[in-house]
């Protein structure tokens, strides 16, 4: 997230030179790291989270069908979950609407943690 040669340049999201999937979910993870590292460099007493990328996508499949994928095997992890269920459709609908009506802001932390718990249970 930080330029290798220039300490005062950060990047997050699709613009990074990392040879990894270009995903909104990964952009958010990188953005938090870049922002916190920058705050730390300004003297804030703040922990910079480790970079633990994962794929998290929910794809609409028409009608009431959708599939949610949560996978970190590409990055050396062991989680590989695919949920083809109306629940995935509800999650996609909820996420899309939240983003739309909140001008692109991410859902609250508790909702993201709930999603993590759900994928851990699968
Ligand atoms: C069809 C499609 C489906 C996708 N589905 C998923 C999915 O299901 N899950 C997922 O995680 N990811 C998905 N992605 C990928 C995801 O959208 C991107 O990875 C994510 O938006 C990257 O975020 P970003 O902030 O890095 O870049 P962007 O969202 O592209 O933001 C960059 C912004 O910079 C602006 N900009 C560009 N040049 C300038 C300039 N010179 N001055 C000022 N502003 C500028 C652009 O207008 C843009 O608003 C999908 C992408 C596409 C195209």
What's a quick, concise take on this entry?
By secondary structure, the protein is α+β, with helices and mostly antiparallel strands.
Give an overview in words.
- The protein has 122 residues and is α+β, with helices and mostly antiparallel strands.
- The chain has two domains: 1-53; 54-122, no CATH class.
- It is built from three helices and three strands, in the order αβββαα.
- It has helices spanning 24-41, 86-101, 109-121, and strands at residues 55-60, 66-71, 80-84.
- β2 and β3 (80-84) form a beta hairpin.
- The chain is globular.
- 8% of the residues are buried.
- The structure holds flavin-adenine dinucleotide.
- Flavin-adenine dinucleotide (FAD) binds at residues 13-15, 22-25, 27, 57.
Helix and strand layout, with pairings?
Blueprint: H1 24-41, E1 55-60, E2 66-71, E3 80-84, H2 86-101, H3 109-121
Bound molecules: flavin-adenine dinucleotide.
Give the number of domains. Answer: 2
Helix content: 25-40%
Give, in spatial order, the strands making up the sheet with the most strands: 1-2-3
The largest pleated sheet is described as:
3 strands, antiparallel
Ligands and ions found: flavin-adenine dinucleotide
Estimate the strand proportion: 5-15%
Rg estimate, integer Å: 16 Å
Mean pLDDT: 93
Can you count the beta strands?
3
Tell me the overall shape: globular
How far apart are the first and last residues' alpha carbons, in Å?
31 Å
**Helix and strand succession?**
HEEEHH
Low-confidence stretches: none
Q: What is the structural class?
A: alpha+beta
Please give the count of helices: 3
Q: State the oligomer.
A: single chain
């Amino acid at each position: 997230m930080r330029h290798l040669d220039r300490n005062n340049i950060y990047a997050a999201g699709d613009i990074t030179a990392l040879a990894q999937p270009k995903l909104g979910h990964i952009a958010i993870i990188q953005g938090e790291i870049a922002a916190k590292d920058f705050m730390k460099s300004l003297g804030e007493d703040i922990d910079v989270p480790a970079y633990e990328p994962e794929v998290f996508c929910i794809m609409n499949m028409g009608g009431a069908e959708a599939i949610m994928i949560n996978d970190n095997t590409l990055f050396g992890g062991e989680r590989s979950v695919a949920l083809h269920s109306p629940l995935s459709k509800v999650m996609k609908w909820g996420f899309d609407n939240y983003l739309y009506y909140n001008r692109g802001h991410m859902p609250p932390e508790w909702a993201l943690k709930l999603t993590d718990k759900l994928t851990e249970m699968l």
